[in-house]
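Re: the request from the purification team.
They wanted to know what the chain is likely to look like in 3D before they choose a buffer screen. I agreed to run a prediction and write the result into the notebook, where they can find it.
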Amino acid sequence: MSKKIKKISKAAAIVFMVSLFTLTLLATSTADLYVDADTWGWADEYIRYAINEELMGSTDESELIFNANAAVTREMFICVLYRFADEPAAIGICSFTDADPEAYYYTALRWAQQHGIARGRGDGTFGVGDTITRAEAAAFLYRYGDFTGYDIDMGSVATLDTFTDIEGIAEWAVEPLSWACSHGLMIGVGGGKIDPNGGLTRAQLATLLYRLDDIFVDY
């Protein structure tokens, strides 16, 4: 009888430890497992949102590294936006000449082109591999907002007058940047600059996603 009781007690202890371990994992945010979490600084809240919502993940295959200051390519941006949209069905083909049908980004790019969100370089290419600029990011989000039914009132162009580098804004970028700044999606990079032609970082992308969700979802 005592051996049976010991076996039951041991089994119960194992079940308890497994349950405790499971509860511990559930209580731990996925973002807490990233080895570079202590480097996220000002973007910590936004990066945690992007990770926990499974919009963005690790840039390393062997360990969890977010790489907050790494540049975002144009196709990566579209992929993340596609996830934000809950990965809807994509039909037809992608006509960009530099898009690889076997690549991870193809379905997302096909969806984005189909709905007028993604536009190319004018020479038939999309610009796969190119770092996306902040102005281009604003344009993609502006078109996504139009497609989704968000408020795409351009806002006041005068909003851009508060930045000291507005002379660097291309004509095509005035409308989307005015919209993004008027609604609080973009607030500049410090020093009074909007940095329209600067490359977008992963931390900045996470921030845009957080604000897009906060400002427009269930608008």
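For the purification team: The chain has seven helices and no strands.
Please add any questions underneath this entry.
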